Structures are given as structure tokens and as C-alpha cells.
């Protein structure tokens, strides 16, 4: 009977229903390796990362070389911010399973979090080799972003998505790059796709929620004020600041305090209005999103 409950619990986990999975696991009397792993998996999906870690450590004692346990333990440590521990577990995984591409990709993500860019690039390149992919567009996009070449990063990530349209990591990176480029609509599209492919990833859930606010018609005008064209970020603000600086300096050099004070006063008022509007529009858009969600 316990085997039946385990099978049902695993089924619910695969269809993203961890609460029902835990209900089935609660019916079990004998606690096997599979039981503890499924309980850890369910807690991970419910974002109870510490609990997931404790269950995984319990079962790891008897299964120190298990791929699934070590992989999920690495993910749990990463979510808890324990990057050193995550690095230890993933390094052991690579030693045990050197031909496992997903392990290399997870190692690359951890290296990126630790700002070890050369190790990250090497891991991504190795993952690409193991997958048999000729062009390392995902790596090119990441390195281009680190060099501040956002347009190049977007081009590379779009090419990566042509090769790997079901890659949640590629869609997540695309969402981040488009967000940095103030293209909120495209960013939201890729963020939602990444979440559909990996619905248990908390960072994807947060990213979608934030982008829904940024893409909200109430908040969007704020972005348009400071970014009228995607090729000229902050240009309107820079132009206004330059004009008022010139007027202020003109007043100083001509000993005309009225001009200087007026220019400074107008500039300060515009700045305050700009900040207040941005903050208020963000709050209103957030409240609107919450009301919209609860009303569904």
C-alpha cells in the first residue's frame, strides 16, 4: 500500500500539486529513501527550503552518491543563500556525473552568483558541448551582459532561444535583458514562459509579479518620461538637467541671482515631482495588480 501512496505523491509533484503530494505521504507508515526524497521535493516546491534541506541530508547519509538528492540539495542550499555549501554539493555531482549537462549548468549559475566569471564561462561551455550544441549563444549573452553590451546580449539570447525554445534559463535571461532595456512587454512575455517551464522556481515567480507591475498602464508612463526611445536611456532627464544647469551658471556669471534661484527652484521642483510620481505610480500599480489578482 505504501508503494501506491508513493506513486500517487510523485504524480501530484509532477503536476505541480505539492500539498496533495504531502497528504499522500502522510498516509505512509514505513519511511524509505523514496519517501524522504519526495517529502523534500514537495517542501522545495512549497518554498520550505530549510525543511527540504533537512529531509535531503537525512536520506543523503545512506545515499551519498545519488544524483537526484545531491541536485535538489544543491538547489535548496542555493535558495537559502548558502552558496559555499551549494558549491561543495555541485562539485561532488560533477565529479560523480561528469557527462551530466544540467549539473554543469547549475554549477555555472552558482559560479555566476559567486562572481567567478571564468569558472561560469567554462561550465556553460562544457554544458553546451555535452548537449552537442555548436554555438554557445547562452554563454555569449551572459558575457555580453557582464561587459555592458545589452544589445549584443539580447541578440545572443534570442539566437539561443531559437536553438532551445523550451529552456527556462534562456527565457529568464531574456526577461532580465529586456527589462534592463526597458522593454517591459517582451520582458514579461519571457518571464511568464520561464515560469511555465519551471513553475517551482521562486525567483521566476517574483520576476513575473514585478514585471506585471512595471508593465501596468498606470506605471508605464513613468518609464516613458525618462526613456522615450530605447536607444536613448534617460535622455530627456539629461537634457532638462543640462538646460537648467546652463541657465543656473549663466545667472552666476552675470551676477543675476533671480535667474539662478529661479532655475534652481524649477529644477528641484521637477525632480521632486518626478520622484513622487514614479513612487506613487509604482504603489498604485502594485495595489491594482493585487486587487486584480484577488478578484479573479
Can you characterise this structure?
The chain has 16 helices and no strands. With 296 residues, the protein is mainly α. Among the domains are: 1-82, Tetratricopeptide repeat domain (Serine Threonine Protein Phosphatase 5, Tetratricopeptide repeat, Alpha Horseshoe); 216-296, no CATH class. The longest helix has 39 residues, at 257-295. It is elongated, with a radius of gyration of 25 Å. Mean pLDDT is 79; it is low at 226-232.
Write the layout of secondary structure elements.
Elements: H1 2-14, H2 18-25, H3 33-45, H4 49-60, H5 67-79, H6 83-96, H7 101-113, H8 117-131, H9 137-146, H10 150-163, H11 168-180, H12 184-197, H13 202-214, H14 220-226, H15 235-253, H16 257-295
CATH class of the domain at 1-82: Mainly Alpha
- Output the structural class: mainly alpha
- Report the biggest beta sheet as strand number plus sense, adding barrel if it closes: none
Low-confidence stretches: 226-232
Helix content: over 70%
Overall average pLDDT: 79
Q: How would you spell out the order of helices and strands?
A: HHHHHHHHHHHHHHHH
Cα end-to-end separation: 39 Å
Radius of gyration: 25 Å
CATH topology title of the domain at 1-82: Serine Threonine Protein Phosphatase 5, Tetratricopeptide repeat
Q: Let me know the number of strands.
A: 0
Amino acid at each position: 500500500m505504501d508503494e501506491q501512496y508513493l506513486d500517487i505523491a510523485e504524480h501530484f509533484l509532477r503536476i505541480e500539486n505539492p500539498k496533495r503530494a504531502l497528504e499522500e505521504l502522510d498516509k505512509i507508515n514505513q519511511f524509505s529513501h523514496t519517501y524522504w526524497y519526495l517529502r523534500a521535493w514537495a517542501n522545495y516546491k512549497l518554498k520550505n527550503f530549510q525543511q527540504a534541506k533537512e529531509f535531503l541530508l537525512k536520506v543523503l547519509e545512506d545515499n551519498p552518491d545519488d544524483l537526484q538528492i545531491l541536485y535538489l540539495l544543491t538547489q535548496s542550499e542555493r535558495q537559502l543563500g548558502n552558496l559555499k555549501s551549494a558549491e561543495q554539493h555541485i562539485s561532488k555531482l560533477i565529479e560523480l556525473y561528469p557527462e551530466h549537462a544540467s549539473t554543469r549548468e547549475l554549477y555555472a549559475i552558482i559560479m555566476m552568483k559567486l562572481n567567478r566569471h571564468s569558472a561560469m564561462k567554462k561550465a556553460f561551455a562544457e554544458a553546451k558541448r555535452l548537449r552537442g550544441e555548436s554555438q554557445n549563444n547562452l554563454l555569449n549573452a551572459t558575457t555580453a551582459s557582464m561587459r555592458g553590451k545589452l544589445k549584443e546580449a539580447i541578440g545572443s539570447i534570442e539566437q539561443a532561444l531559437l536553438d532551445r525554445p523550451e529552456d527556462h534559463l534562456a527565457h529568464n535571461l531574456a526577461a532580465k535583458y529586456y527589462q534592463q532595456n526597458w522593454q517591459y512587454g517582451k520582458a514579461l512575455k519571457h518571464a511568464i514562459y520561464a515560469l511555465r517551464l519551471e513553475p517551482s522556481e521562486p525567483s521566476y515567480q517574483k520576476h513575473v509579479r514585478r514585471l506585471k507591475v512595471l508593465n501596468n498602464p498606470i506605471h508605464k508612463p513613468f518609464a516613458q518620461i525618462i526613456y522615450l526611445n530605447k536607444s536613448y536611456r534617460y535622455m530627456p532627464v539629461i537634457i532638462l538637467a543640462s538646460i537648467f544647469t546652463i541657465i543656473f551658471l549663466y545667472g552666476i556669471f552675470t551676477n543675476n541671482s533671480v535667474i539662478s534661484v529661479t532655475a534652481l527652484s524649477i529644477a528641484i521642483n521637477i525632480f521632486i515631482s518626478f520622484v513622487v510620481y514614479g513612487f506613487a505610480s509604482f504603489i498604485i500599480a502594485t495595489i491594482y495588480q493585487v486587487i486584480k489578482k484577488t478578484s479573479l
